[in-house]
Give the backbone structure.
Amino acid sequence: MKTVDLSTASVRELNQALHGQAQQLTERDWAITHPAGKHNIGVGIDEALKIDIHGHAGYYCAGMNKKANVTIHGNVGVGVAENMMSGSVRVKGNASQSAGATAHGGLLVIEGDAGARCGISMKGVDIVVKGSIGHMSCFMGQAGRLVVCGDAGDNLGDSLYEVRLYVKGAVKSLGSDCIEKEVRPEHLIELAALLAQAGVDEKPENFKRYGSARELYNFKVDNAAAY
Amino acid sequence: MSQTHPPILRESATFDRLVIQEIQRAAETGIYDIRGGGTKRRVPHFDDLLLLGASISRYPLEGYREKCGTDVILGDRFAKKPLHLKIPITIAGMSFGSLSAQAKEALGRGASIVGTSTTTGDGGMTPEERGQSKQLVYQYLPSRYGMNPDDIRKADAIEVVLGQGAKPGGGGMLLGMKVTERVAGMRTLPIGVDQRSACRHPDWTGPDDLAIKIAELREITDWEKPIYVKIGATRPYYDVKLAVKAGADVIVLDGMQGGTAATQEVFIEHVGIPILPAIPLAVQALQEMGMHRKVQLIVSGGIRNGGDVAKAMALGADAVSIGTAALIALGDNHPILDPELRKIGSAAGFYDDWHEGKDPAGITTQDPELSKRLDPVLAGRRLANYLRVLVLEAQTMARACGKSHLHNLDTDDLVALSVEAAAMARVPLAGTSWIPGVTKY
């Protein structure tokens, strides 16, 4: 295992070393110590590395991740795993705003709560939050699945495209064009697999499903108030 | 009393025929009018400025014998690999989706022939575009459609888009007729939706966050690629300062004459400011920070000829960018298309329903039959010709002003034809030493 101590090494040195693994793989297991809330830790990784960050990370931790499996043993700032393409990111603590924003693939697990705009504009990622999520989550969500074991804040799924939302707790309000939908057997199977993959012990039957009414997909005069 | 001659009808200046037509259209449809292009109203522009050629106090360079340099380096503030362009005229961001793949390829071909860059748009990078563009700027937009780290690494520079001159504060729009299978696939959208792009970035708000976002992009690219920040001209003095403070290598400033693929007509005509007053405000901000010529300034919005290029650079820009003019050079609105344009309710020289995807030129369309009408090689040559003319014209005027490089043009080479233009451009009213707001008359 390679250990990088961010109290002595810079984020630049760390990221350069991680990027270098895509050219020549010398070490799969990485431990990062003393992150101290630094921003942009582990962004742009392009190799199947296993990375453990021991402490709190700042903005955009594991941003644009490809292939790597990253665990943050602490809290994370804005935009964790933003635009992730593949691999996985697990946050042991809480996540700030815009967790998993625009992410195209992979799995993001947040074991605590997530702030506002969780999964905003998500494009294929799967996000599982063991706690609750803030307002405007999954705004303009395009593809993927968002699972919330706690509650959801105001305007969940506003202007939603094709993301499937599963929420166990209360939803404060739904955004424009987001509606509750029937949970069919295939959804229970899908949800059970997601929960298992995330290592979350919850029963799929306890969740409600939300999705797009698809009424805003094309401009209609009658929907002017929703635009 | 009976009338013996036809009456002279008086048109209202307030409710002219266009206004009446729009009220009637709105009443019939209940939806705002959408079109492409930039503002159509007359606004103070480069036409309101004149260059002062040489005389006794200054001597000119020989037009055909003495060198007048045109190259520009963009992004050498922080990036390890700045762009070195042979000419200071770049191709602005225009998406695949709004434009056909052939048009994007043609833009790349034309730009590469003359040694300049082209720019992606809201919809990702196509192989056609990357393949034909020797220097390609990858836009990082609020929607992040098609955004991925592989394409970031393939790009030569990254342009963080905060706004656009035609619609500062507004998001993009691509109506369903152009959201074909390929376009929808690249954007992860259902086929045929009226796509509305976000106007705000999803994972940052404000200048302090922007600094962290720029740092992230630098980290992902190992500090190799220049980071541009594009803003629509509204409050350029403040926006430029904030962008520079956030770490931008290059500022792209787009005036209200800049085009759009599809936006509400009322938005295009009533939001933002022309490029003429925007440039001096941006230059002032850079100068006050000691960053003029260190952070490069690219300006766009209504660049049409070499005179516009020279005047923009004399006002302090390092380079200009063209969008609408580039499409016209490819073949948009060509007179030969007039019969077909009339069939869809327009005419050559007027066509702006780019959002409908019916462009007979094969440029602003996703219709495969229309798209294949555009020969990317031929259209690319036309663009290269046009770019060469812009450069030759700008050089001609720069030499006449005694300048051995386009970057040596400055505000001492300019006067204004109107009080308004003098105040906006901060150059003297012609025949006086008066700069309204700066000097006393």
